[in-house]
């Protein structure tokens, strides 16, 4: 029998209690990895961790001390860290004429600062001299919104564009410092989950589309594949980037969007 391709690997998934994060945890586990679910939602997070036979750690991605404690706990509980998935993120739609600076700062704090702190602690832990110093993989979750101009998503789009940039700088730094950590990101297309449904409702509330159904149809109309993505399709790409099949793939943004952002 062929051994699962991520057998023996230890992965930490932020925002792993629901949505894509939950799906990532499931697929990583199915590929043989031991998964640590990191989230603010303890009850849901522990349920996911139990379902995949992993562990749960409490994590506020915007807080440096929380990262330090969560990564240390993860390493202690599963014996190391080989894969970090910076998935935790928020999307709040707003027209420029109604822009709330506090909301904009919150989006950047979670999506950009949160991912940056994840990279920081992954490098410190996976690099030489770290608690799990055998190198590894960081996968950041950006968005197709980073590559298109969709109304009311200015701050979210900008934050996900920043995730792409920090991915590439981090990959270069890791190489220059000899850390042995690959860093890539994924641009997921719109997925029909809770976050996707929330976006469709926001577009309707803002008057950009007559109904959530027409908002979704608008996205599909921009997608050459003619449909929305599935969570499984995004997770398959994640497992690929985490695996040795992608061992010379570094510093890239992988679109999994049906061609929407081409």
Q: Your description of this structure?
A:
The protein is α/β, with parallel strands linked by helices. The chain has 2 domains: 10-189 and 230-248, 3-Layer(aba) Sandwich (Rossmann fold), CATH 3.40.50.720; 191-228, no CATH class. The protein has helices at residues 19-30, 42-51, 64-78, 101-126, 154-177, 194-205, 212-221, 231-242; strands at 10-14, 34-39, 55-58, 83-86, 136-141, 181-188, 253-256. The protein has a 7-stranded parallel β-sheet, with helices on both faces. Helix 5 links the parallel strand 5 and strand 6. It starts with 9 loop residues before the first strand and ends in a 6-residue tail after the last strand. The model has no long low-confidence stretch (mean pLDDT 95).
Outline of the structure:
The chain is an alpha/beta fold and 262 residues long. It is 46% helix and 14% strand. The protein folds into 2 domains: 10-189 and 230-248, NAD(P)-binding Rossmann-like Domain (Rossmann fold, 3-Layer(aba) Sandwich); 191-228, no CATH class.
Supply the key terms.
single chain, 262 residues, alpha/beta, Rossmann fold, 2 domains, seven-stranded parallel sheet, 8 helices, 7 strands, 46% helix
Assembly state? single chain
Number of domains: 2
CATH architecture classification name of the largest domain: 3-Layer(aba) Sandwich
Q: Helix fraction?
A: 40-55%
Count of alpha and pi helical runs: 8
What is the number of beta strands?
Answer: 7
Based on Cα principal axes, name the global outline: globular
* CATH superfamily heading of the largest domain: NAD(P)-binding Rossmann-like Domain
Largest sheet: 7 strands, parallel
Spatial sequence of strands, sheet with the most strands: 3-2-1-4-5-6-7
The overall pLDDT, averaged over residues, is 95
